[in-house]
């Protein structure tokens, strides 16, 4: 019985090794080519000022980006081909943007009607009331 199991094991191993060596080149051939865009860049603005802290949701993924203090964001192109972004910020109307090229974009956010932003004092720049 020991010789039979050794022989069977030897045949199984010998039969699978060529199959494994044939699969590896095929897997490399089906790899996706690199995306022509290295990254997708953009800037979110509110009037003539950058909008820091705006949320950017990449549709079809679980990726959420936040703009920096100058309103800029960067998304690696390896995540999705030409993404659709849902942009939102407190007090501003949500917007969607779909990339159609590798060119950086600038998106202008619009205040919701009735939104008031504090203009003076210690809390300058904070939203005091959000529109409906």
Helical fraction: 10-25%
What distance lies between the first and last C-alpha atoms, to the nearest angstrom?
Answer: 81 Å
Number of helical stretches of at least 4 residues: 1
Average pLDDT rating: 76
Biggest beta sheet attributes: 4 strands, mixed
Secondary structure tally: strands? 10
The SSE string, one letter per element, is HEEEEEEEEEE
Radius of gyration: 27 Å
Tell me the structural class: alpha+beta
Strand content: 25-35%
Show unreliable segments: 4-9, 11-30
Query: Any idea what the shape is?
Result: elongated
What would you say about this model in short?
The protein is of the alpha+beta class and 132 residues long. The protein is 21% helix and 30% strand. It has one helix and ten strands.
Topology:
Blueprint: H1 2-29, E1 39-46, E2 49-50, E3 55-58, E4 64-66, E5 72-76, E6 84-88, E7 95-98, E8 105-108, E9 116-117, E10 127-129
Parallel strand pairs: 1-8
Antiparallel strand pairs: 1-2, 1-5, 3-4, 3-6, 6-7, 9-10
Architecture overview:
It is a single chain. By secondary structure, the protein is an alpha+beta fold. The protein contains one helix and ten strands, in the order αββββββββββ. The protein has one helix at residues 2-29, and strands spanning 39-46, 49-50, 55-58, 64-66, 72-76, 84-88, 95-98, 105-108, 116-117, 127-129. The strands form three sheets. Strands 1, 2, 5 and 8 form a four-stranded mixed sheet that branches. A four-stranded antiparallel sheet has the order 4-3-6-7, with no helix packed on it. A hairpin with a 6-residue loop joins β6 (84-88) and β7 (95-98).
């Amino acid at each position: 019985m020991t010789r039979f199991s050794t022989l069977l094991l030897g045949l199984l191993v010998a039969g699978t090794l060529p199959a494994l060596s044939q699969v590896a080149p095929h897997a490399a051939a089906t790899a996706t080519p690199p995306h022509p865009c290295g990254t997708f860049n953009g800037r979110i603005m509110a009037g003539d000022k950058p909008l820091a802290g705006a949320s950017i949701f990449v549709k079809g993924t679980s990726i959420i980006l936040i703009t920096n203090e100058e309103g800029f964001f960067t998304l690696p192109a390896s995540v999705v081909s030409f993404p659709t972004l849902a942009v939102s910020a407190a007090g501003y109307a949500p917007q969607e943007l779909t990339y159609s090229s590798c060119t950086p974009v600038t998106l202008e956010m619009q205040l919701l009607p009735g939104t008031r932003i504090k203009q003076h004092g210690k809390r300058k720049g904070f939203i005091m009331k959000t529109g409906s």
